[in-house]
Input
Amino acid sequence: MLKKCAHLLSSLLISFVYFFSLAANSTEKMWPGSEYSPSIPTFKDVLGYDVGERITNYGDMLRYFEALERSAPKQIKLFEYGRTWEGRKLIYAAIGNRDVIANLDGFADKMQKLSDPRITDKSTAKALIAQLPSSVWLGYGVHGNEISSTDAAMMTAYHLLAAPNEATNRKILKNTLVFIDPLQNPDGRTRFTSRYYATVGMQHSDDRLSAEHNEPWPSGRSNHYLFDMNRDWLAITQPETAGRIRAMNHYRPLVVIDLHEMGGDSSYYFSPAAQPFNPHMTKNQIDNMTTIGKNHGKHFDRYGFDYFTREVFDAFYPGYGDSWPVFYGASASTYEVSSSRGELFKKRTGETLTYKNTVQRHFVASISTAEGVADNHNKLLNDYYNYQTSAIKAGKNSKERVYILPNKRNIAGNHRLATLMAQHGVEVKQANSDFKQCGKSYQAGAYFIDTAQPKGRFVRTTFTQQVDMSSAFVKEQERRRARKLDDEIYDVTGWSLPLMFDVDIDSCSKAVKVANHLIESNDKLIGKVINPNATVAYLIPWGDMAAGRFLTAALQQNITLKSADKAFTLEDNQKFTAGTLIIEKRSNDDDLATKIIEIAKNTGAQVQGVNSSWVTQGPSFGSSNTVTMSAPKIAMAWDNPVSSLSAGNTRFVIERQFNYPVTAIRTQTLKSADLSNYQVLILPSGDYKEILGVSGADNIKQWVKRGGVLITLGRATQFAAEHDIALLDVKRERAFQAQEDDKSKATKAVKEVEGESMVDGQLFSTKDELVSASENTKEKPDFVAGVLANIEVDQEHWLTAGVHKSLTAIAYGSDIYTPIKLASGKNLAWFTDAENVLASGYLWAENKKQLAYKPYLIHQPMGRGMVIAFTQEPTTRAYLDGLNVMLMNTIFRAAAHARPLK
Ligand SMILES: [Zn+2]
Output
């Protein structure tokens, strides 16, 4: 309490210095010198409290924006851009002068023209620039527990509408259109606000130990499916991301800001960003953010706010809210304010940070951004147009000018990638007839993308196999690593979409000339049933997600079906892959054909009806090398100690990409629960040792022995492999150390004898010996921030039936495992040789060597059931679509192969 009073006193003092002449209510203190019109409703008018006094919940935020729109419909317009998984409306507001607001479609239309120099020449562009306002998109609260930005969004809207004559506002409203997306993650914020206020007692605690400052699992950061939506801009898996991308592609705001919060002991962060920058960004884009950052510096100095720039938060991965917009030509940045994560927070310095403090900083940065955009109106519009021109030129000059997707294998994956790129606003074309390009022949149906288009750089950065960090940055990281310092790599360094989606691509330096049509983002994959009146069976070749979704639909409609463990050939010489689904007429109802046609239509699967079951090679339909599939009940661990990202991603992939339900069970419950109702249990990544322990592991082990399928992902595999848990017969490896290493000589000399507190003396003659003597002798392999790695897949095992022989997975962290011995099980997928293991990104040389030929997917039979271990996570960000068939096999084919007593 004392601290709070001291704070009030100091802010009174500041207000005395700066604006003693005003009636200093707290709204006015937000931007001193403003006079607010009473016709625009304040926080207090609508919500009953002043700005920053409470953490506004989602419903009240909506109510406030609706009140603003009612009071000034000519200056602000609200739009719904989607619904969250939990059904909440997502909105943005457009604020500007009457002329612009009256004709937003006209504005969007002009921006579209300015975006394409192929239809808009320089003089037309000049005329457009003379008419267009500049524009800024302010995105708030993508991480739902980073709370202050939403109240800052409300304050920003109020301030612009209620004080149009304040000098800065006048500048902004004259030539700039301000978009405000006040809450990008309503589901996450609701999780935070409801639990925070449910936990508060007689007074708000500023103690970081207090319950209200420590969210239970899962925190409000993520959305309903526990995604970090600030990583979702590449694969657009979540409806919130899809809606934002649609809106941004429509208006093309020139500057985009994503507002966040960081730890409470910090200050404020804005642009310029940290190294490394994505090399496909232009200097102008980076410079514009520095200009705007400088403007903040001016205001922050005036208010006495601490800040920093450049040291963290890089701009390398193109799937952040502040990097995706750069690839249509915007300048973009992240802002971070130290969080009070509640109404009060005591910093380590002893100062009390109030919620209002944090709201004000984001609000000031918001207005300062809009001011920077207004001040640079002409430059930003010109830069935007020139960006498009240079993007087309860069595409024309590139050796990888055109990417071609032959579309002969993994048809569903090709379709997903082609429509995803269309959703990004990329022109994707599909050939209407066969053609030749760069000496190769392609069939009608091949997709191609010419990077000589405005979004060409986005295509480059997401399709090319390798995007390099600057060599100076890499050199510095290697230096730090050599000195045993942590590296400064912030996020994954590889994200090539064709690799991640298991889609073959070629590139060519020349434009493709063939009759074609443009792909739309909502184009459906067309399913097909050949010979729908088949008399014997329907066959669905296995190997892509259309067949995968066919399987889950068929299982849920109680269709009786089998799957072949091996490839087979029919008498007419038609070949079918291992894993092919076999649906026999004799074991199903009379309306089978109707159901098959309907499912094929909905899933895009290719179905072949056959009138004979005569097989000339491989297993016949009645062979013991076919298995009857049944609809497994799937359980997964949920709640601490599971990584919420891994839990959410995994549940999402199964529920929304496989279209199959999952029961989430709290980890604590798994310890003693009777699991006999379930056929499959998935442990997402997490450190289970403490919560499950030996007795919990034993409960799971007994269930596996009775016929259960246990699947462990990422760090859950560590748990399974612990020696006293013994669910999996492999071990984790320490970092490889060469035997006769000079460096270790010095350390070898000193033998520590147990029970003695002194050791024999040693002599150092170089600093290296000091360094080496202070090293731990038993270290883990160096940590990897996340790269794409090549894996090879066993082609002869039923568990990997139909899975492509080579795939791309993520390698993250420092987990490397010994192979399982044949006596215990089989290694069914493994990392490739050291030379080729890195598919994309930056991987330490030692890790490459040690990762080579180490297991990725392990199968260990146990009693009537089995344990299946992924040594890395196959569901990261739900953007490794290429691993989905393998993951489906581990669930559905494994359940079919388990032998519980029925
Ligand atoms: Zn954040």
